[in-house]
Amino acid sequence: MAISTPSSGSGGAGVFWQINITPLTDIFLVLLIIFMITASISVESAAHVGLPLAESTAPEKRGVVVTYTADHEIFVNAKDIPASALEGALREALSRIDPKVVIFQGDRKVLLGDMVKILKTAKAAGAEQIAIAAKRASVEEIERSLR
Fold it and tell me: CA 100 to CA 134: how far, in whole Å?
C-alpha cells in the first residue's frame, strides 16, 4: 500500500491512500499459468491406454470410441462417463452416426470380464459392429510383450 501526500503548492492538506495492484496482478498471472499447465497435463494423461499389440491392423475412422483404462475409467469419445450412464451415452452417440460401429480401446491390463460387459452394453445401446483397437507391432515385439 502506498501513501502519497499532496504537495504544499496544492492548497489542500490530507493523506491519500492508494493500493498498488501490480504485485497482486503478478501473483494472479503466475497462478493462472500454473493452473493452465497442470490442467493441460491432467487432460492429456486422463485416457492413456496401453493398447494390445497386433501383427496387422486396419484403420477404422468412423464410429464411437469407448476407452477403458487400467484404472477402470470409461470414456466415450474422450468424455469421462460413469459406468451406470454408459448405455445412455452410447445410445446418444450411436444415434448421431450412420454406421453403428463401436471401437473399443482397452488397456492390456483390462480384465476380459470387464470388456465383455462393456461390449454387451454397446450391443444393447444399438451397436451393429464392434471393433477392437490394437497397436501395430512386429512379431518380436508381440512375443516380448507375452513374456
Answer: 20
Q: H helices then E strands: how many in the chain?
A: 4, 9
Tens digit of pLDDT per residue, the chain (147 long)?
555 555 555 555 667 677 788 888 999 999 999 988 887 766 554 455 565 555 555 555 678 888 888 888 888 888 888 888 988 988 888 888 888 888 888 877 777 778 888 888 888 888 888 877 777 767 777 667 666
SS3 (DSSP) at 102: strand
How far is the C-alpha of 89 from the C-alpha of 102, rounded, in Å? Answer: 12
